[in-house]
Amino acid sequence: MGELTPDIWQPVLLTIELATITTILLLLIGTPVAWWLARSSAWWKEGVAAVVALPIVLPPTVLGFYLLLLLGPNGPGGALASLWGARTLAFTFGGLVIGSALYSLPFVVQPIRNAFEAMGARPLEVAATLRASPARAFWTVAVPLARPGFLTGAVLGFAHTVGEFGVVLMIGGNIPGKTKVLSVAIFDFVETSQWREANILAAGMVVFAFVVILAMTLFERRFASVTP
Amino acid sequence: MSGAGIDVAFRGNLGTFQLDAAFRAPARGVTGLFGPSGCGKTAVLRCIAGLTRLPTGACAVDGLTWQSDTTFLPTWRRPIGYVFQEASLFAHLSVRRNLLYGARSDVTRKNDADIGFDEVVDLLGIDGLLERSPRHLSGGERQRVAIGRALLSRPRLLLMDEPLSALDRATKDEILPFLERLHDRLSLPVIYVSHDMMEIEHLADHLVLMRAGRVVASGALSELQGDPNLPLATSRDAAVNLDAIVVEHDPAYGLLTLDVEGGRLRVPAAPHRAGTRRRLRIAAGDVSLLVEPQQSSSILNALPARVAARKPIGENEMIVVLTLGANDAGARILARITRRSWETLGLREGMDVWAQVKGVSLAHK
Q: A228 lies in a domain?
């Protein structure tokens, strides 16, 4: 057995970091969006829903291209970056987080929205008749009842971020330790004929995907039981 | 629009449905909101709770304005309890935590003024269910927990939206006694929506009749039941419920003697303390009329009464309104007779007769 390239684990750690931060960010942003989409009666809400869902249909390179324009030195991202003296958000870890968040948003919003909708208005009405303020009703009734949706959303958001390639390549490039994530690393190893490294990472992803799906199913079953 | 009691007036469109309902309900006892399905009863209840907001609405309870042209108190700021048609328990909480969701933290402590946790659990017979999940309860158990949960939030007004209609006959009969016990125990005003006259007769003291989004009549239950111009009196199972006071019990024959306004009745029943209040039900079909007192009959109750009014039902039958006693001051009951009997007996309004009552049923309370 020959020596493994020492930096094989760097993309793995970076990917986990990226996916974790993105998932947390998505839960923070996606929950109010999903709540609004589930509860609002505004006629234009399906328009907003369609915009949120765009990344499902758009080729990642298209999304990446526009992100590049937005985050680059001449876009609003560049203006933002100039606040702390940087020139651009593209090709940075921060830019990657923004790109991943946009790219994975529908995968988080959709399950949470579905869970809020499936719950219906009744539990919240009941909470209101029991003197619960809207905030209390949200935290003690809506969130626990929508828990399977949150779990599915978090897992899908995480997994989808781990697996992204096109967007990363467009806005992140291939900077080791900064933007070189797992999928790009696999591509690199194949390009340079490091089949063993590619194999390890690819097989790892297969195991990861299997574990994710299995865990999700088991968790959902467990959560179906009541809190004492 | 002030003072004790519940004053409501709601007007507006709900989808294609037009609601224009106003009534006043007493500050004590159960007000039945009765009418056919789709007449707007639930809409009125939701408006009172603030769950539905009509721009033209007024709602005041015990002198406090919940809704007016300038005010709208959100549901969670209204001191109500609401029991929905489906129990709607929180699926993620145990029965105990469902019960305590709207309760203040001191609810488990002994307190004579308000109903406490132990008393509610005892009253509703849900002691054995506390640690269970709502998923594993029967329909009747769920609805009992929902009622308990509403009560433990210590409402000033309890709203019940057909709480029994989703249940089968046997389960209804299981819950009705609990509701009657609640009625006896609590001074809290209740608005009880139903399209089932049987439930209304068991529980309501006051009645609001609705039809097609409007209030047809509002008044004491027995008053509306005995009003020949309302559809209740001419319906197939017309009856009058009277409040009676127990006079004595005859153990030799197992007969209970009760006084109603303007008359005295004997009913086969278990012993009761003298002075207890009971609700009687006299069906119009169980009352026949005599022009002279009969000396011997198997029927126990023949009361002097006066013909107050009549209303034809179809071609050959009619409903006769009678006031018990001699001076027109007594309670009103109904008799359903044929036109032939009316004519052959020579009956007319204002005439003194004997009302023979074949059957009297005693409600639980």
A: no
Domain that holds residue A117: 14-223
Nearest CA-CA partner of B208 in B3, B4, B7: B7
Interatomic CA distance for residues B127 and B150, integer angstroms: 17
Which of B92, B133, B157 should one mutate to test binding to chain A, selecting the residue with the greatest count of A CBs within 10 A? B92
pLDDT interval class at B74 (50, 70, 90): very high
Cβ contact A227–B92 (<8 Å): yes
Query: Which CATH number characterizes residue A51's domain?
Result: 1.10.3720.10
- For B356, the domain range is 277-362
Predicted ipTM beyond 0.90: no
Inter-chain contact B81–A129, Cβ cutoff 8 Å? yes
In this structure, the answer to whether residues B80 and B190 fall within a common structural domain is: yes
Can you tell me which residue has the tokens 């009913």?
A: B267
Give the per-residue pLDDT at B109. Answer: 67
- In this complex, the residue of A129, A133, A144 whose CB is nearest that of residue B92 is A144
R_g (Cα) of chain B, nearest Å? 23
**Mean confidence (pLDDT) of chain B:** 88
pLDDT for residue B31: 94
How far, rounded to the nearest angstrom, does the alpha carbon of residue B247 sit from its chain's CA centroid? 24
Q: Are residues B213 and B130 in the same domain?
A: yes
pLDDT tens by residue, B282-330: 999 899 888 888 777 778 888 888 898 889 888 889 999 999 887 777 8
pLDDT score of A226 more than 60: no
pLDDT of residue B63: 87
CB atoms within 10 A of CB B96: 17
Cβ within 8 Å, pair A227-B135? no
CATH number at residue B214: 3.40.50.300
Report residue B346's pLDDT band, with 50, 70 and 90 as the boundaries: confident
Across A136-140, average pLDDT: 95
Pick from A132, A133, A227: CB nearest B93? A227
Classify each residue of B141-173 as buried b or exposed e, where b means 16 or more C-beta atoms within 10 Å of its C-beta: bbbbbbbbbbbbbbbebbbbbbbbeebeeebbe
A224 versus B47: which is more confidently predicted?
Answer: B47
Would you call A162 helix, strand, or coil by DSSP?
helix
- The answer to whether the CB atoms of B75 and A129 lie below 8 A apart is yes
Q: Give per-residue pLDDT as tens, A168-209.
A: 888 887 888 888 888 888 988 899 988 998 999 999 999 998
Whether residues B345 and B210 fall in one domain: no
Please judge whether B92 and A147 are an interchain contact, meaning their C-beta atoms are less than 8 angstroms apart. yes
pLDDT tens-digit series, residues A33-45: 999 999 998 999 9
Contact B101 A125 (CB under 8 A): no
Chain B residues closer than 8 Å to A144 by CB: 92
Domain boundary among B220, B246, B268: B220
Contacts of B131 in chain A (CB under 8 A): 228
Q: What is the signed CA dihedral for B68, B72, B77, B81, rounded to 10 degrees?
A: 60
For the stretch A75-108, pLDDT in tens is 888 888 888 887 888 888 888 999 999 999 999 9
Give the residue on A whose Cα is nearest the Cα of B153. Answer: A130
CB nearest A129 (choices: B82, B86, B92): B82
Q: Is B90 on the interface with A (CB under 8 A)?
A: yes
- The CATH number of the domain where B351 resides is what? 2.40.50.100
Chain A interface includes B133 (CB < 8 A): yes
Select from B364, B359, B201 the least CA-distant residue to B277: B364
Domain count, chain A: 1
CA separation for the pair A141, A171 (Å, rounded): 40
Beta strands at B206-211 and B30-34: parallel, antiparallel or unpaired: parallel
